[in-house]
Model the fold of this input.
Amino acid sequence: MNAPERLKPHGTIGDLLVARGVLQPEHINTIIERQHSHDEPFGEAAIALKLLQRSDLDAALSTQFNYGYLHDNDTHLSRELVTAFKPFSSVSEEMRALRGQIMLRWLNDDRRRRMLSVVSPQAQDGRSFIAANLAVVFSQQGQRTLLIDANLRQPRQSQLFHTGHSAGLAGILAGRARLEVIEAVPGLPGLRVLPAGSSPPNPQELVGMASFGDLLQQVSQNFDVVLIDTPACDRFADAEIIAARTGAALVVARKNRTPMRRVNDLARRLQDTGVAVVGSILNQH
Done:
């Protein structure tokens, strides 16, 4: 398994723009003169002089600061990854605020507190959407992030990230695969995804095995953040077993759809088994 390296900013914005071919070298001095006279950033000066498009500046800034950011013409990932395609949208701002709360309440340098299960009472609450976009914003912050799809019944992350391995988590737990099935995500350098793999006949038994706990211990040594997508809790016990393994959970509910009594019941069951409920989020998307 190759965990992502910690990311560092690199290159001046002018150098990057010239290297991309969207800015001519002979325009650099003109832009710098405007930058100094108007006390504005280099990129804004170039846009004011009509020498640069806003989209080209955003792309260069994302490269300069290793900020995972995908362009509208990218087709290798699902458009549901809003935080990757539209990092300046209101949805992305909400995800960054959620990221901040999670970091304050749970995640820290303790290896045992780098993992978080994303759970919800019922299907269609938006667990996978939240888990995927939350993983993106953690990686955009420079955190070495792993997203595990532990929904071995109806996995969604392979559809969002277009992963290629059929073995995935199920293959690892069954002893048929190793951590090499963890996949890098093009355009998001700090993010790795472990897909669920082929749906097995015994998903609850697999996530209850000691090998699942061993896997989590191993990846927690190589990643700063480990997020785990899970099945709905109203039909299966998988998610509660997984949350017990990670020690913490984020509860997702969908606006105007998820009964609050189910949310409260789930939170109480998790807490009764020693799981820290780090927070809850009302999914409006």
